[in-house]
Structures are given as structure tokens and as C-alpha cells.
Design goal:
Layout lengths: L2 E2 L9 E2 L17 E4 L19 E6 L15 E7 L9 E2 L8 E2 L12 E12 L2 E5 L7 E8 L2 H4 L27
Antiparallel strand pairs: 1-2, 3-4, 3-10, 4-9, 5-8, 5-10, 6-7, 8-9
């Protein structure tokens, strides 16, 4: 259960451990754009970009941030960081889409999180003005965009990985769709 901190600095944070309240500062994000897709509701959406092969979308970057797109067109893939704007609340144990057992939230990619931040690696087709045309999109239409980073194979690909409880179900992601369990 969350309770309001007693921080004299007035940080206004709700924390699980009020004794650490003064060690935390306010964090705010300003959307830099909006993500557009064919997905108007959560049900039936792909649950990861791997399950959204070929699905096209657009990212509209707001005018004030468009100068930051210079040189991005040289990358085939980008990382989109966004705000899960339809999520409300969270549970620390969830039944993820690829399993029937409860799992710890932080061992899943469930969208209802303490800080509702999403991440997707998508293919960048082209940039026209402030609009990025992308493929393999698994994001709800109208989602606020927080940041864009280039995907760099040498930086982002790891070797000798373990995928925990996902080992048995990893190959089924392309067959799974959102069923509304995280509304």
C-alpha cells in the first residue's frame, strides 16, 4: 500500500518507504510527440513488436523537437520509449500474456506498472518532415512519445542470455494478442 511521504521539502511523492522520501526528487516528462497506429483499443493488439511484423504506423514528433531527428534516417531500427497512457494502477504480481501463472511484475513486460513506461524496437522506413514512418508497431494509437534512440546492434545485442520463465513460451509471441487483462 502506498502512503504519502513526510518529506519537508514537499516533493509530493507517494512512496512505499516514507523514510527515504527526502532522497527522491520529482520526476517529470514532457512528451516529444505522439504515436499513431491502427490499434484503437487494447484488445487484439500484438503484445510485442515481434508479433507485429509488417504492421505500419507513424510517429509524429512535435515541432519543437524535430531538429533532433537530424541523422536518424541512417538507422534501420529505432527504440521508442513511451507512456502507457491507458494504464491505471498496477499489481506487483500479474499473469502475463505468455503464461498462465502469476509472475512478479518486474519479470514481465506487462503494461500496468508503477512508472508506466513502454519500450519498443521498431523498423524505421523513412522520415518525412517530423513524421517517422515505422513498421512492426505494437503500440496503441495516440500514445505519448517520451524519447527516441537509435537501435545499434553492437550496443543493444547481448550474448549468453537467459530468459527465465519465458524459455518455454518464447516462440509463441507472434501468435498472441492483447486480451484486455491489463486494462
Amino acid at each position: 500500500m502506498q502512503r504519502e511521504s513526510g518529506c519537508e521539502a514537499g516533493c509530493g511523492y507517494l512512496l512505499l518507504n516514507a523514510d527515504r522520501a527526502c532522497d527522491v526528487m520529482m520526476i517529470e516528462y514532457t512528451p516529444i510527440g505522439v504515436i499513431h497506429s491502427a490499434f484503437k483499443k487494447l484488445e487484439g493488439m500484438p503484445i510485442q513488436p515481434a508479433g507485429a511484423a509488417g504492421i505500419k504506423g507513424r510517429v509524429e514528433v512535435f515541432e519543437d523537437f524535430r531538429e533532433g531527428l537530424v541523422d536518424l534516417d541512417g538507422f534501420s531500427h529505432i527504440v521508442l520509449l513511451y507512456h502507457f497512457h491507458q494504464g491505471r494502477g498496477f499489481n506487483l504480481k500479474v499473469v502475463p500474456f505468455l503464461d498462465s501463472r502469476q509472475r512478479g511484475l518486474f519479470a514481465t513486460r506487462a503494461p500496468r506498472r508503477p512508472n508506466p513506461i513502454g519500450l519498443s524496437v521498431v523498423r524505421l522506413d523513412r522520415i518525412e518532415g517530423g513524421v517517422l514512418h515505422i513498421e512492426n508497431i505494437d503500440i496503441l494509437d495516440g500514445t505519448p512519445l517520451l524519447d527516441i534512440k537509435p537501435y545499434v546492434h553492437e550496443f543493444d545485442t547481448q550474448t549468453e542470455i537467459r530468459t527465465g520463465w519465458l524459455e518455454k513460451g518464447r516462440k509463441t509471441v507472434s501468435d498472441r494478442k492483447s486480451d484486455g487483462r491489463f486494462k
